[in-house]
Amino acid sequence: MSPGRHLPAARVLAGRAIDEKILHSVRERALASGGELDAVALAAAVHDSGAALGSGGATASLQALQNEVSGLSVLEPFAQQEGVTDVLVDGRGQVWTDSPRGLQPTGFSFDSAEQVRALAVHLATLAGRRLDTASPFMDMSLNNYRVHAVIPPIATEGPLISIRVKNARQLELSEVLQHAAGFWDPLLGEVLRRRLNFLITGGTGSGKTTLLQAMLGQVRPDQRLLVIEDSKELQIRHPHVIGLQARNANTESAGSVQLSDLVIQALRMRPDRLVVGECRGAEIRDFLAAMNTGHQGACGTLHANHPQAVPARLAALGALAGWSLQATSLQAASALDLVIHMERDGRGGRAPAVLGLLETDDEGRLSVRTLFDLHCQDAVPAPALDAIEDKLGTPVAAAVRDWRCPAGRKGTPC
């Protein structure tokens, strides 16, 4: 695939150059329709332009044209590949994809930094965002993607584009849990049934959002879910989901809506469950405060590379909200019942690996006590079993006590 060498006023679509006259016509239609164009509207736009795609490969040409105008342009085919979770353009214009097979080069490169920048600006325009020297980065949702772009001077080696592909098919909980579904499924079901407050933690791309989405799909249909996100990612199969999304300031630095604002608004909307897609700022104060004032079944995700890093992450977020270390520790230990830690295994899969409990010591320092770790095949200590029984009941504690990894791979989460 070629990005179109030496065609500054054209695009190569389905093997032929499509001039700017067609692109201008369909862009006008895209803007008028909010960025979405079906095949009929595209064909009408081409007709209005007075140009012709030709009879051969017309369907492919129209699809490529739709990608150019309301999708990811030349990056769309990579995002559509089976199993791809991320499409990345580096500072040299090289395109990479991430999937269960790991991060791999595609062999596709842009001709110049100008082409990458033009695509990034085009994507920003589709979402009504600004991307220029004064505003050199942006984060947005576009169709089934979350798009992030950074341009010079912030990006020192050239424009960068990072695209997270949202899973079009919502996975069942058993699919997310994979080999250990027999253990985790009843445990997580009990977490939901008892309306415990929990965080799903893990590193980048570990499957935090995927697990949260699958779990919330198991919530009773008579419960009202208030979902707060910085950029919409969660696609929850549930009959009563209310979504709130943060908003950046406009070019006049007005109109910003922060996650912390949305948490406060959500509490006035009778939530049965309060969900924060990703905790990463001062909203942690209002989120923890809500849990400590009777809002049960609250949950969210938190970026942490291992469970022992969770207290430090919470402390950092609490500091952003003006809390002391001790205040954050006490609030978190009181509010959160469990930590479920996700990891990527050596086979490219993503699955929960550790169940933890937040607690404070005599000096008020926060820590995560591991209750169960699928890396280990050793017996679960009696105090941990007691804590599991206290939180989740005797049947779950018995299942944890008797658990043996069916794969028999010590050191690798099952």
From TrEMBL:
<dbReference type="InterPro" id="IPR050921">
    <property type="entry name" value="T4SS_GSP_E_ATPase"/>
</dbReference>
<comment type="similarity">
    <text>Belongs to the GSP E family.</text>
</comment>
<dbReference type="GO" id="GO:0016887">
    <property type="term" value="F:ATP hydrolysis activity"/>
</dbReference>
<protein>
    <recommendedName>
        <fullName>Bacterial type II secretion system protein E domain-containing protein</fullName>
    </recommendedName>
</protein>
<dbReference type="Pfam" id="PF00437">
    <property type="entry name" value="T2SSE"/>
</dbReference>
<dbReference type="InterPro" id="IPR001482">
    <property type="entry name" value="T2SS/T4SS_dom"/>
</dbReference>
<dbReference type="InterPro" id="IPR027417">
    <property type="entry name" value="P-loop_NTPase"/>
</dbReference>
<dbReference type="InterPro" id="IPR022399">
    <property type="entry name" value="TadA-like_ATPase"/>
</dbReference>
<feature type="domain" description="Bacterial type II secretion system protein E">
    <location>
        <begin position="81"/>
        <end position="340"/>
    </location>
</feature>
